Amino acid sequence: MAHDNKSPNDNPDRLRAENEEKKKKLTEEQGAYFSDMTNETDLPPEIESQFLDHIMAFENAFQTNKRILLYDFLDKPSYRKAEEMNDEEVTEELNRMLELMNNKIVSLDTICEVDDRELYRFITEELFLEEKDDIHIPGMITHYIYEEFHPNHEYDIRNHSTDFIRSYLDKENDFYMHLLTSEAEKADWHVHFRQAFSSFQLNGFSITELKFDAENATVRFDCDFSGKVEDSVESLRFLGSGEFTLLYQWDYWCVDKVNLPQSTFC
Question: What span, in angstroms and rounded, lies between the C-alpha atoms of 228 and 131?
């Protein structure tokens, strides 16, 4: 006699009904909202079931969770002070600490290059003292970025300046508005200049000098771009040196003033 070894999960209609019950429970108890993702994306019922299980696990853990130090979350690992070790030992201990964190589904990344000794010091003297939710859910990662604690201002200023000029000279992209100070955003100098041209072509941009303190930054640059005059066949070329003034607002470097090179007819 043949035996039916099928799992209850092999019945897609039963799974869909169970998924609807899970969504109903999450909606009633947690205020969750679900669009009709099954019909819109043809999501297999077994995948949707796993997705809903992860949400329920997170919500249940969050309801009963407490805040603890990262050091406690990592089970209070033993460690040595950075100043007590030579460079080779620091690197070995850093790798051990990163592996230990990884085993606990905790990651630490850097945007820029950071010396091993400084990164180890940061972990043991600062990151260990950060509080986090005491939640252990498979696949859920706690992610830290070094620069969120110690911003690399020169890196940020260079990138924001480059992003600004590229977006500003792209008539189909208004992202540059998000890089302006609140005062500059309310002004109209950037709007009038941009509207005078139907299109731009950026041929080159390079930062030649950068100075900054805690609140202000000055960026000098060389650039080469052309703009086609609105309602005309003529184009103007902007070639030479310019300057950005940036202010540090909302923990973010924002462009406040712009001086572009003089123009000539192409």
Answer: 54
Match domain 153-265 to its CATH number in 3.10.450.50, 3.50.50.60, 3.90.180.10, 3.30.420.10: 3.10.450.50
6-42 pLDDT per residue, tens: 454 557 778 778 777 777 776 766 666 666 544 455 6
User: How buried is residue 146: exposed, middle or buried, by Cβ count under 10 Å (0-12/13-18/19+)?
Assistant: buried
Query: How would DSSP label each residue in 112-158?
Result: S---HHHHHHHHHHTGGG-EEE----TT--EEEEHHHHS--HHHHHH
Query: Where do you find CATH 3.10.450.50 in the chain?
Result: 153-265
- For residues 74 and 155, give the distance between their C-alpha atoms in angstroms, rounded to a whole number: 32
Answer yes or no: are the C-beta atoms of 78 and 52 closer than 8 Å: no
User: Between β-strands 142-145 and 106-109, what pairing exists: parallel, antiparallel or unpaired?
Assistant: parallel
Distance CA 138, CA 30 (A): 21
Q: What pTM was estimated for this model as a whole? A: 0.74
Give the 3-state secondary structure of residue 212: strand
